[in-house]
Specification:
The protein is mainly α. 72% of the residues lie in helices and 0% in strands.
Length: 115
Amino acid sequence: MADETLDIDTDKMMNAAPGLSALGDQAGKIFSTLGNRLFAAGPAWGGDATGQAFLSTYQTPRDTFMETATGMTSSLGDTYERMITTAVGFNTTEKENAASINLGGGDGGPGLEDD
């Protein structure tokens, strides 16, 4: 399995991450506006049997949607943070690995011999 490699383009990760953050911010504003408008309308369906029937089929899906929207917005922000953390971690590990290798043509480190 020596020919298998792991290649991570941390520059692409770092460049893409802010887009997720911006998308999360935009989604948050959209869902906030939608929620405010839905709740500002109040119980427009009335207290009669028809209005109550509508409410019984409307309220739970509305509430579920708003909870899901809030979770999605939060997930986009979390994904942004994880991408940045992962990219920084890979860069740090790569630098540490490079520093631990004798690049000056020495004996190659413990257990390795010069040709």
